[in-house]
């Protein structure tokens, strides 16, 4: 039997039918059985989790009120700071880093009664689309251990898909929640920029990064977002916007739903099986009474080029602090102070991180700033305006999450450009700062999941979640579990 949903676990704990200790014990058992194959986790602390579970069970036994996620085991991506354990960002330069504080989302989760079991694997500093760039090990896709789980939140996605836990947090800078959700057959939500505090998230691209949930279904994503969303004065980009009741909104009728279809998302390079699955999902919306409206996003064809200038420029700035002097790993026997910087960064950063730092430094350098970075910012504004025009006509824009299903481990590692192009449908939402969600919409003939992406206007999560929930009420793709998880539960 696969892991129940977050809501089912929460309700079982609250009622006293199944204690928090039992759920933690079950999750630990799943980690021990499945993670040697998946390699989804960098670290976990079963003893700490069990102590927290005992406290919640005692509260329930005394009849005391408990939080909305009481006793629910969750995992978080290892670029989110916790006072317990290490926060490594899957990088050698932070291999021994112990954060002095908890991230805002960690505080929110634990205040709600959630039990954080451990930290999940990722592409180093969240730079990648396959979770192969981790310094520790590559993570595998539970639907096929020979395939990647997507990235950079591949560890979180793999663990949720395999039923190790029912929910996890990831971060999304250019698709790093939605793409692995698509590859692993689960639900992944990138909230509006500023909806969730980035305090305690190790920065990659500060104007793009956003924390969000990976879950089995839309209802659980709404529940996790409900807990972590809201203003945080410690994050200057956190928006003081009221947080609606996302969970209650799922039950409201989605009358007059208008789905936008942009021809730019159905051009060359789209896998035929992905196209067929997404078109079938659009037909399902139409059968439910939604109106399908053609829209145009003329500047999204520049989105990948724009993103890989903005993101790497911000990465170059953000990662300058990891120099062996101010922060991070230091080379053991430097010859002089220049060598401290050079050797520490050479030893501490992997190839992809070094590549992006160099690209970003070049784009920001004197004589090239106007030609590259400044031009990218102007294109970003045009992309944002395209979406604003589209959302005057429609409630959500639909399309594929990724142009292809998951590829084999190692297949694209030697071709960074091919890897970058896998973000072609996701990066525009980050550039525009709008919310996006990926939900399962089918499988290839070889049994690999396919994701449908829905995007909404700024702070349009209620309508976006309602549309995704409508689709999941009419289909059962999200209920399917990998054979690996079924065999382990048997």
Strand and helix layout:
Blueprint: H1 6-15, H2 20-38, E1 41-44, H3 46-61, E2 73-77, H4 104-111, E3 115-120, H5 154-161, E4 167-172, H6 178-184, E5 187-190, E6 210-215, H7 218-228, H8 246-249, E7 258-262, H9 272-287, E8 291-295, H10 303-318, H11 337-348, H12 351-364, H13 370-390, E9 396-400, H14 416-420, H15 427-432, E10 436-443, E11 449-455, H16 461-474, H17 483-489
Parallel strand pairs: 2-3, 2-4, 7-8, 7-9
Antiparallel strand pairs: 1-3, 4-6, 5-6, 5-10, 9-11, 10-11
Helix pairs in contact: 2-3, 10-12, 10-13
Parts with pLDDT < 50 across at least 5 consecutive residues: none
CA-based shape: globular
The structural class is alpha/beta
Number of strands: 11
SSE order: HHEHEHEHEHEEHHEHEHHHHEHHEEHH
Give a concise summary:
By secondary structure, the protein is α/β, with parallel strands linked by helices.
Task: Please characterize this protein's 3D structure.
By secondary structure, this protein is of the alpha/beta class. The chain has a single domain (6-263, 388-489), classed as Amidase signature (AS) enzymes. 40% of the residues lie in helices and 12% in strands. The chain is built from 17 helices and 11 strands. It has helices at 6-15, 20-38, 46-61, 104-111, 154-161, 178-184, 218-228, 246-249, 272-287, 303-318, 337-348, 351-364, 370-390, 416-420, 427-432, 461-474, 483-489, and strands at residues 41-44, 73-77, 115-120, 167-172, 187-190, 210-215, 258-262, 291-295, 396-400, 436-443, 449-455. Strands 1-3-2-4-6-5-10-11-9-7-8 form an 11-stranded mixed β-sheet, sandwiched between helices. Strand 7, helix 9 (272-287) and strand 8 form a beta-alpha-beta unit. Helix 2 packs antiparallel against helix 3 (46-61). It is globular. The mean pLDDT is 95.
């Amino acid at each position: 039997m696969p892991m129940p949903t977050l809501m089912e676990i929460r309700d079982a704990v609250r009622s006293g039918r199944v204690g928090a200790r039992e759920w933690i014990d079950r999750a630990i058992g799943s980690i021990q059985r499945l993670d040697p194959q998946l390699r989804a986790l960098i670290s976990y602390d079963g003893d700490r989790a069990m102590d927290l579970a005992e406290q919640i069970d005692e509260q329930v036994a005394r009849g005391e009120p408990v939080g909305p996620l009481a006793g629910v085991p969750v995992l978080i991506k290892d670029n989110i700071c916790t006072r317990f354990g290490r926060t490594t960002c899957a990088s050698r330069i932070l291999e021994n880093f112990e954060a002095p504080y908890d991230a805002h989302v960690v505080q929110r989760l634990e205040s709600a009664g959630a039990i954080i079991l451990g930290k999940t694997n990722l592409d180093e500093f969240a730079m990648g689309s396959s979770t192969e760039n981790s310094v520790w090990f590559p993570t595998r896709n539970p639907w096929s251990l020979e395939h990647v789980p997507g990235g950079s939140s591949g560890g979180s996605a793999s663990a949720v898909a395999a039923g190790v836990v029912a929910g996890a947090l990831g971060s999304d800078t250019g698709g790093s929640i939605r793409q692995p959700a698509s590859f692993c057959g689960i639900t992944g939500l990138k909230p509006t920029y500023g909806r969730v505090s980035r305090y305690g998230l190790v920065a990659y691209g500060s104007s793009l990064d956003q924390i969000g949930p990976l879950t089995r279904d839309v209802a659980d994503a709404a529940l996790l977002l409900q807990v972590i969303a809201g203003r945080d004065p410690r994050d200057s980009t956190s928006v003081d916007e009221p947080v609606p009741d996302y969970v209650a909104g799922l039950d409201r009728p989605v009358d007059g739903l208008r789905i936008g279809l942009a021809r730019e998302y159905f051009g060359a390079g789209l896998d035929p099986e992905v196209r067929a699955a997404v078109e079938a999902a659009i037909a399902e919306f139409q059968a439910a009474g939604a109106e399908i409206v053609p829209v145009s996003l003329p500047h999204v064809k520049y989105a990948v080029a724009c993103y890989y200038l903005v993101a790497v420029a911000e990465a170059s700035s953000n990662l300058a602090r990891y120099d062996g002097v101010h922060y991070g790993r230091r080379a053991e026997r430097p010859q002089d102070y220049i060598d401290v910087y050079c050797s520490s960064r050479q030893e501490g950063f992997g190839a992809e991180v070094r590549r992006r730092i160099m690209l970003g430094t070049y784009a920001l350098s004197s004589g090239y700033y106007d030609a590259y970075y400044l031009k990218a910012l102007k294109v970003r504004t045009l992309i944002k305006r395209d979406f604003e025009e589209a959302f005057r006509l429609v409630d959500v824009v639909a399309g594929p999450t990724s142009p292809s299903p998951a590829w084999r481990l190692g297949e694209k590692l030697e071709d960074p450009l091919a890897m970058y192009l896998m973000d072609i449908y996701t990066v525009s939402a980050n550039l525009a700062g709008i919310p996006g969600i990926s939900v399962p919409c089918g499988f290839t003939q070889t049994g690999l999941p396919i994701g449908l992406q829905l995007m909404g206007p700024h702070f349009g999560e209620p309508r976006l979640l309602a549309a995704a929930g409508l689709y999941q009420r009419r289909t059962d793709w999200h209920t399917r579990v990998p054979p690996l998880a079924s065999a382990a539960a048997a």
